[in-house]
Amino acid sequence: IRGVFYERLELYDFPIDLQEISVRISSNKNIDELVLVEDETKINVVNTKKFCDGQQWHLFEFSNTKVEEINDEFKQVVRSQIAFSAYVVRKFQFYIYKYKK
């Protein structure tokens, strides 16, 4: 899957903050018809060279995968979902400097 994604950031620890960036993929099919699973024979990697905000953030090569079930009350089905998470830390040196008199 390729695309441009948007993540709302939590700024409680700004400018020294760590953010989790997640992409969730789900299906419209019932969990009895389709279950999304992680391919454990392949290692998840994050392509840090394609990260476009590298001047302000450091993107870690580490990622997490989590398989979940969604209870869709509107359609009255349980659907499968998989979430991929990567982590970035702000390069705080840009925001903090030492002032000398």
Report on the architecture of this protein.
- This protein is mainly beta and 101 residues long.
- Helices cover 0% and strands 43% of the residues.
- It is built from no helices and three strands.
- It has strands spanning 18-30, 57-72, 77-90.
- Strands 1-3-2 form a three-stranded antiparallel sheet, with no helix packed on it.
- It is elongated, with a radius of gyration of 18 Å.
- It starts with 17 loop residues before the first strand and ends in an 11-residue tail after the last strand.
- The mean pLDDT is 81.
DSSP strand content: 35-45%
Query: Which series of helices and strands comes N to C?
Result: EEE
State the total count of DSSP E strands. 3
pLDDT < 50 runs, ≥5 residues: none
Structural class: mainly beta
Q: What count of helical segments does DSSP give?
A: 0
Quick overview:
0% of the residues lie in helices and 43% in strands. The chain has no helices and 3 strands. A hairpin with a 4-residue loop joins β2 (57-72) and β3 (77-90).
Descriptive key words:
mainly beta, 101 residues
Q: Layout of helices and strands, plus pairs?
A:
Blueprint lengths: L17 E13 L26 E16 L4 E14 L11
Antiparallel strand pairs: 1-3, 2-3
